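Dear colleagues,

I hope this message finds you well. In preparation for our joint manuscript, I am sending the NLP/P60 protein (Ruminiclostridium cellulolyticum) sequence together with its predicted structure, so that both groups work from identical material. I would be grateful if you could confirm receipt.
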Amino acid sequence: MADPATITLAIKVAAKAATDKRIWKVIGVIIAALLTPIILFILVVLNTLSAGADHNNTAVKLCFSSGAIPHTVPAEYANYIKIMRYSFSELDKEIMKISSQAESGSLDSIRVKAVFYSLFFGSENLKLDSAQYRAFTDCFVNYEKHTRTVKNDNGSNTEEEYTVTVPLESMPEIYIRLQKVLNRQITSEEQVNASEIYSRALYGKGTQTEGDSFGWWEDWSPEKIKDIKGQLPEGTLGAEIVQLAFTRLGDPYSQELRGTGRYTDCSYLTMWCFKKVSINIPGTAAEQAKFCAEKGLTISKNDLQPRDLIFWSYRPNGRFMNITHVGVYAGNGKVIDASSSKGQVVYRDLYNTEKQVMYGRPYILGQKINKNTGGSKG
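The corresponding structure tokens are as follows:
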């Protein structure tokens, strides 16, 4: 161990260095020299990523419009845009033919082109022949045979059969057809990208992710939840899940910060509730719905019980069944969910019936776990 005199001398030298501005200046120069290459590298990466995003956004805008291509767009991107515009014009021809056979509704041309863009932009073999463009477009409609009564010149009537087109609303079905026509797998990334392109072309902004997107909601208050808490059977797994959801009322909503502090979003809330009772479900609303579907854990709305999950879809987003929101059913026509429009976890009446697309019961997994381990929960 150093003697006290040595320690005292060291302290004095350190104190003098701490108060000497020249020494601090030298230290600052050394630190700057060491960090400058790192800082410059980070800036280059960020600028490169930003430029790439700008080019992608510009390409989407220019492909869906007829404006002049700016000279600032890289030559490679400019060439892809020209070819994509040609393909869009060929697709429009087929869309017009198909739409002329529709009795109601019309084929969403932006949807067709957004999917095409996602699958082909940057491809070396982008230009297709007319039959291929037609086969691609046909994946978005059903053809049905209808009959109509035709009056003849002699006054008699004749039944005539004709073909009508019916636009498909199910994107999963459309992608299944496209995979057969294109003879390749369409990845989830390509599907999400198609929805992003569609949203930017139609709305000028990206797709909605997790959370609700409606203006109406019913306020909650502690007084409103007393009755339903009392109605929940004690000691059951379903009641425990709902009770856990109740403990999060008022917690702040955030996708970016979910899982830190009290922050949550809709799917983190449901995942957290089930994880607390040793049931693991995926981390997004769409993945949770897909999990329920694949595991045989779906139910009908008439069978809803406290602890079940309710899934909503508000507009296409490329995910499973276009699902963007989930909540825990609390019984008596109520739901507990993390609301992006309110900014917190709320307890309210079931809403937007027409937007509810699936109901799931993951707690069945808990019953199996407890049965296998001899637990008493059920």
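For the figure legend, we might mention the following. The chain has two domains: 75-203, 222-373. The longest strand covers residues 141-151.

With kind regards,
E.M.
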